């Protein structure tokens, strides 16, 4: 993953790395996967597959789960070790065996990400903005780190000491990030509305990398719209499910979820959401059978009721 010299950024980027290389084709069963991609794929497996079954598993079970994704035992062990260093996973020894569980910080970050990934509809936008004014004493490096961490919550730099999100419900996540950086008492948060909207489209195009995000969505659509033959086995369904979510979250977690008026025409994020929902639900039953078989009696039944729910 990128940003390894900055612990705060590394923890966040672990959940959605914009520099992560593309996942293998959805039908691929053996691909050369380098370490950064291996780490990111294991994050996807934990968030999508292991978290609903209690959030922990034996290392041997994880090795078995990711083997059909092209990850061998050595690469998996290395990636897990690095996730422990990043504060996402923690290990518990049982004799010669190790069980890996999400940390409290890791669980909170996963919960925040999953609320976006598995939503069946785009979030409601009320036309309000949330603004954060930074004090002059914040160093350039700390401003950079703060902007990166707040970027996962939809914020962008609007000025040297000003960050903003085009959503009125962004105060709570902002406070959480500011607390992590020990800046909660030093920054001022505003809830604002606009009197004129004519310049907002240009502001959004400058503040957020909308062209890059649209390209990521289009890459996802190109890779998964041609569904090919149905999965041959439960394991195949699991592989396709993981790669589906891995590709989808790569674009989605960078998407600031701007109001329609601030987005370019024919925004591909809507098609990507519909495709992800359709394919995920089609793969769910078979992939869950595979998970139950690998994780065994110690795993909890998958709690998947909130994933891509039916829309009214």
From TrEMBL:
Bias-annotated ranges (Basic and acidic residues): 8-22
Region (Disordered): 1-31
Source organism per UniProt: Pacificispira spongiicola
Domain (Transcriptional repressor PaaX-like C-terminal): residue spans on this chain: 208-292
Protein name (Swiss-Prot/TrEMBL): Phenylacetic acid degradation operon negative regulatory protein PaaX
Alphabetized SUPFAM superfamilies for the sequence: Winged helix' DNA-binding domain (SSF46785)
Domain (Transcriptional repressor PaaX-like N-terminal) ranges: 37-103
Pfam families: PaaX, PaaX_C
Annotated GO biological process: DNA-templated transcription
